[in-house]
Amino acid sequence: MKSSLFSGSLLLMVLSTAACDIHWVREVKRTPSGGEVALLAQNGDAQAQAQSLMASRCPSGYDILEEGEAVVGQEVQSNTTQRQGFFGPTQSTTAQSQDKREWRIKYQCKGAGGAPVAPAGTAPAAKPAAVYEIVIRNY
Fold first, then answer.
1. Cα separation of 31 and 34, whole Å?
2. Domain residue spans in the chain?
3. Alpha-carbon gap, residue 25 to 127, rounded angstroms
4. 21-68, pLDDT tens digit by residue?
């Protein structure tokens, strides 16, 4: 009896520890001046983790450049039917596809990116801007 009580308590402790350590955000792209993050769920925890990640990458703050759904793949379901017809066996197949989507946020650290100021009469040197994107997946 004592052993089953201990193992039940241990299982509860492991499950509660695992539940507290859920990562709702996946870093899709990271550059020195920004990035892209994917949110794996649409809830307040995912938004908070995304904001925390962006703030940790950009101590001076960040600007969100783009936010929205992104297609990240497709799910295909097919159904095949075989029948015996007058002229022999027949087979028909139907397929249905659906886009897999997730929520992404592209961000840029403040003070990063953009073209540096050039002296008058000269063309500014182009500097590529870095972008981060955050994704939220709906399951």
1. 5
2. 22-113+129-134
3. 28
4. 678 889 999 988 899 999 888 788 888 999 999 999 999 999 999 999
